[in-house]
Amino acid sequence: MEGEGTTLSEEHQEEKEEYVLIDLDGVMGQVHIPSNAPYVLSGLDTLNPILTIDGKIKLVGEYDETVGTCLVFSESDAALVVHEETGPSEANLFSGACIVDSKQAPVKQVKPITSLHKILRFRLMEEAEGAASTDKQTNNANEQVE
Asked: 91-110: b or e for each residue (b if 16 or more CB lie within 10 Å)?
């Protein structure tokens, strides 16, 4: 009995979060996706997850394994470099003043967030495909309940 309990706890320890990149490039020219539109992503544990946007647009996804590891980064504005004149000097006309170079390009700070190994690419769901997929998901749900 003790060995079985150890195995279960080891499985829980081995579970890791998995990140997936959602790629909508394949549908961007075909449909307009409003910014901040509500969406439902279902069937992530299936081969073809369904993404419903604003209750109107239905997309079907397919996983692609990445070659190597994809890194995900976060970009934020970095603080401006400020030059402060210090120390006494006859030539120092701006003693104690801070000088910001107006020609300095905006600086961005990039930090790695995570890595991922899968990309979920979406395409428009055809009407007949949508009905078959819905029936299949309903059947799977009924089998799980029984």
From this structure: eeeeeeeeeeeeeeeeeeee
- Residue 10 domain-assigned? no
Please tell me the pTM assigned to this model.
Answer: 0.55
**87: closest CA among 79, 77, 96, 78?**
96
Contacts of 58 (CB under 8 A, 6+ apart): 50, 51, 52, 124, 125, 130
pLDDT in tens, 42-58: 999 999 999 999 998 99
CB count in 10 Å sphere of residue 123: 15
Number of domains into which the chain is organized? 1
